[in-house]
Amino acid sequence: MRSDLLESNRIIVKIGTSSLTHPNGQTNLNKMEKLARVLTDLNHQGKEIILVSSGAIGVGTRRLGLTERPQELEMKQATAAVGQAILMQIYEKFFGEYNQVIAQVLLTKDVIEDPIKNQNAKNTLFALLKLGVIPIINENDCISTAQIEGYRFGDNDTLSAMVAELVDGDLLILLTDIDGLYTDNPKENKDATLIKEVEAITSDIEGLGKDTGSKFGTGGMTTKITAAKIAKANETHTVVALGDDINVLYNILDGEEVGTWFKAK
User: Fold this and answer.
1) pTM over 0.85
2) What domains sit in the chain, N to C, each tagged with a CATH number?
């Protein structure tokens, strides 16, 4: 029993592209509907919920008829612009079925690093949470560019950890296509075992983060360990868990030994 997680109230849930899409890249509407229902239910319990959602470029890629995620910057920005509108339309439909108000918040790294923008972002997020709204956050891919030094998060795992820092979150949950951190890549090594708890993020732990990202998403376990490290520095717990069944969120908040728990202290 992970008793430290039972009292988590301000919770940041990050879900990756691989958890929101079918293997062929098409949007998994059943998964998104369940996500809306569970997060709304947690909100009804009095939890403060922030959702960091990937998927804009993936959704845009499919809507534009592309066979794989684009590599050119301008094409990434174009697919993000198309996909973000569709993604929020889907979320609005599903959350609306449960009378849950949502809000779109698009961030760039300079918002976190600039003191004035940082405070404005905090004020907005805290006001939304106070109103019972679930903010849905993504990076502003349409204007974020790798060419501008320090302007881009690069992945939503890092973004979610910085959001947790921004709002002083209790728990960061990273839902992905693997059920936690293993001693080796379980897709390649059948003898790899799940690491249930991580006390300290050492160089050995960081070395276990072999990337396994899908062709429709970015990142892998490396970015999740980085996110956990950022969260840990701000005394926020992190759990990396398989996102196949959205009900896993209940299991995590009930203190069950699900996924890998990166302890805050």
Assistant:
1) yes
2) 3-262 (3.40.1160.10)
